[in-house]
Amino acid sequence: MSNNEKNVEKTVLIERRGQIAVVTLNRPTRMNGIVKQLEFELRDAIESLDRDPGVRAIVLTGAGRAFCAGMDMEQVGNLGADDIRDVGYMRPFDMNRRPDYQTRYSYFAASNTPIIVAINGATAGLGLVLALYADVRFASENAVFATAFAQRGLIAEHGVAWILSHIAGQANAVDLLISSRKINAAEALRMGIVNKVVPHEQVLDEAIAYATQVAETVSPRSVRVMKRQIWEANFQSLGEAIAYANEEMWHSFQQPDFKEGVAHFVEKRKPRFTQV
């Protein structure tokens, strides 16, 4: 390793807390603005944690006063049109997942591990894209949200028109995208963009507590299958979703976690799920 490599500060930090991994975007002086190093480090972090059977939930947050204010503006001016086609971001995350979830940002959905976001401040542009591709979103009462793309002369990037319409509805997606107006946490909650708003100093603790509940009280196999069901449902008819669920239900009945799920309830004790 060269001296230059040794001196490069990590833009993504990982902290293990038992079966929980806390991933922190770590460019606080730049409001965690996205640069290529951060993109690659975040991708590597999510992939490595998803492969770790000891990790049952991931909490993603930002250092400092922002979650992520989008692409670092110092980098935006140097980007060429071909950046959007950079194949370095397009390697498959999980070959068993549909191509829709193999792209530069949608890979969160390909992770088998639930990703819970603790939105601790400003969330705009690509920062909002990251948050929307996660599974559950907790927001600080101080959080502010904006799409921002139209204000930069850009368009709805990386599938955000699709994912925002699915989460918040078409009317809200149109509003936020074409106006680029800022909304506060309370309005984001009303639109369904976040699941819960909490006092600022509690947002990370709330997300970790939720992740801990998932890690300690439910079958990780069930979570993995249900996360896939939810994301696949975006492309299925009701009949296809039912057929998929029936097939997975048949497999569930054959698993040790089903037997443990019944046993711990009957015996009135904490579960000891083992499958991932």
UniProtKB/TrEMBL annotation:
Molecular function, one GO term = catalytic activity
The record's annotation in InterPro entries points to: ClpP/crotonase-like_dom_sf, Enoyl-CoA_hydra/iso
Gene3D superfamilies given in the database record: 2-enoyl-CoA Hydratase, Chain A, domain 1 (3.90.226.10)
- Pfam families the UniProt entry points to: ECH_1
> Which family is annotated?
Belongs to the enoyl-CoA hydratase/isomerase family.
Name this polypeptide is given: Enoyl-CoA hydratase
Q: Which organism's genome codes for this protein? A: Comamonas testosteroni (Pseudomonas testosteroni)
Q: What is the lineage of its organism?
A: Bacteria, Pseudomonadati, Pseudomonadota, Betaproteobacteria, Burkholderiales
